[in-house]
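Hi, here's the filled form for the chain we discussed.

Project: internal
Contact: R.S.
Residues: 436
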Amino acid sequence: MPELCIKNGTVLTMDQAGTVIPDGAVLVEGSRISYCGPRGQMPPAPGRRELDARGGLILPGLINGHTHAAMTLLRGLADDLPLDTWLNEHIFPAERNLTAQSVYWGTMLALAEMIKGGTTCFCDMYLFAHQVARAVDQVGLRAVVGEVIYDFPSPSYGELDNGFAVSEDLIRRYQDHPRITGAVMPHALYTCSPPLLTRAGQMAQDLDCDINIHMSETLHETQTILERHGARPLAHAASLGLVGPRLWIDHGVDLHADEIQRLAQAGCRLSLLPESNMKLASGLANLGAMLQAGLRLSLGTDGCASNNDLDLFGEMDSCAKVHKAAYLDPTNSPARTVLELATRRGGDVFGQPDLGMLKPGALADVIVIDTDQPHLTPMYNPYSHLVYAASGADVMHTVCHGQVLMADRKLLTMDEEEVLARAKEEAFRLSGRRSL
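And the returned structure, exactly as it came back:
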């Protein structure tokens, strides 16, 4: 029998046809949706738990295509700086003080923010990745997790060989987990040598997993790779055998039209990070060309040190508006398309076509938006409201893999007060600065 019923709201299925069900309901059995349709036609299921949408919007949980969860502890530590200065003079030095405990509590803080903001699935590249996976496993979210590797010693694993060992252990440990998947995650072309990248690509092939990497983020990065290797970033990656269906790129700001076509034809995937790219003045990815080429795309927030939040509603708003302004075209990046990046299209990037949609048989990741509020009244177009008016604070209920993680804004799988207190202590230990 169905174990959970989410009813009394307008269902945005986010399927390709754009099906909307007024006065709809979603029934969940285990981790899957068993019914999605009109409330009056749903099968009876006595004894089930019910979540009342109270006339709001019922839609798939949002999917964050790229972040560094534990960087919540570095939120606001260094702002208004160029990427190389921000990274080398502030972020890397602070990260040398990271411990397994700080990453665990920083991740728990991020998960609290994500659940309260309607995000049910994310891709995370960071240090002490086993602690990230541990937190995700305990709290009940869905994630692709990887240990970031680069050519210099890591505060997590030390020398590079250990980094590959940690990566392999993580991938093997979670290969049968229902919500967590491991991936190989070299940091970037400018922090990873060709031998490291070649080895990472071979590991991804041997372990049948993704390889996730920052690439083509800035013009400065492109110039650096040209000077070192005599080729633009994508051509350099291709020379190392990395360009193919396993490749998952973050940023993709400085990509030429022919490079976008090449990525699409190779079956690669890309996560767009507009707010981080704007804040660090990295530039703007060519979303229109990417969509036209059929490139598999998702939307992400990046880490809280460069965003400075994990609110995908704000990210969608920024994504839609900045592309309109950049190309002087108000029809660029329409609301429904941008919402697809954080739902159905994002699910495809995660390699799960039944993720990011509401339909029978799909994974039961569902959120409910409270629309009975001044800034969401009246509502003529739900896609418009979700992208241009809503925020993470409007999420009423959050369900992942069939488990209720938040009901009526109350977190159910963690102690929020403890998480906030422990995160503040870890942030002080990292930075030497007390939170106000």
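Let me know if anything looks off before we file it.
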